[in-house]
Amino acid sequence: MLLGCIGDDFTGSSDLGNTLTRAGMRVVQYSGTPATPAAPDVEAGIVALKSRTMPVAEAVRLSLEALDWLRAQGCRQFLFKYCSTFDSTPQGNIGPVAEALADALKADRVIFCPAFPATGRTIFQGHLFVGDRLLSESGMENHPLTPMTDPDLRRWLALQAREGVGHVPAATVWQGPEAVRAALRAQDHRFVVADAIRDQDLVVLGQAVADQVLLTGGSGIALGLPGNFRAQGLLSAEGPQWRGQAGPVAALSGSCSRATRGQVARHVADGQPAMEIDPEAVMAGWTTARDAAGWALSQKGLPLVYSSADPDAVRAVQSRHGAEAVAHRLDAFFAECARLLVAGGVTRLITAGGETSGAVVEGLGVKTLEIGPEIDPGVPAIRAGETLVLALKSGNFGAEDFFAKAAERLAG
Length: 412
Known about the structure:
The chain has helices spanning 10-22, 56-72, 94-105, 153-160, 170-173, 177-186, 199-208, 225-231, 258-269, 279-284, 289-297, 311-321, 323-343, 354-364, 402-410; strands at residues 3-7, 27-31, 44-48, 77-81, 110-113, 121-124, 127-130, 133-134, 165-168, 191-194, 214-217, 249-253, 274-276, 304-306, 348-352, 368-376, 379-385, 388-393. The protein is of the alpha/beta class. A hairpin with a 2-residue loop joins strand 17 (379-385) and strand 18 (388-393).
């Protein structure tokens, strides 16, 4: 294994796997830290954790555990992957986890770059944009667990870290890898936010940190890494192989993002079967996973079970029951629904939302995920077993017709 990656959620990890697979690396995603060694042909291993919103100390512990395993596989470089919208709170978890990894690896400079231009995430003058809007005006300010109210990544990260935060501006990145290396050496701070507004900027950053043991960012920061290994003659000449899966399909959505709500609306407008889940009914036990799975298994086409309410409705339920209690109950609901669907014969399963996808993977007991071809930017097809394929979509990703597109791509 050449590159060892630690993802703070499941959809973000598969997004990273998609980037590396497209560049020709053999990638396997692991659900949590494995108990056994990796297969010998794995070139990039991604340990997917569900650590984005857990208590800081637990997120740090699990991340260091993943690092120890990846180091034991012989990895030469490590990547801490978080969301392209830098999902976190003033307490963490991005800063504390990055500090722990940097301490363990004795890294003196660590780049932070969540940019993903293909999905509209760009960084300029240290500020994160989503399309033509600052992060704090993109809808992320309404996120139920990690509301992003400040687009200045330097300022936000400084709240979570022991030290100040430096910056490599776009003007430096445009001068090429050597200019970035010189800028990193001149920094007074260990953590450095790097601007990137084009894919080429991400390639330059990847080339610039070829000798750095640790880097952090969204999946885009990995664009230049396979080329570094290829230039050293370390990658296999054979690219990854993919085979689709026939059989029944179903979709589960727990995301409240604008993109997912638009995809749900499109699915309904196209006349496909859809069952809306009221979180209040789930909390009261009036609607169960068995009810939802039974409905989905009785439908033709692509049945969708969703709880993708608007932010005001989510806040109302949270105010009555508590945000953590609601999130825990819905995660358990979708995990059980996924188990029942697969037991009922579903072979293609689509999920929307990072927390929902993590709950589904854990609920299914899947430990090893083979990353396949891209469905939409940031979302690959995934083989989870001999007769099961998945699409794990971050809430903000995917075109409006994502559900239909994913069903077709998973079939082959």
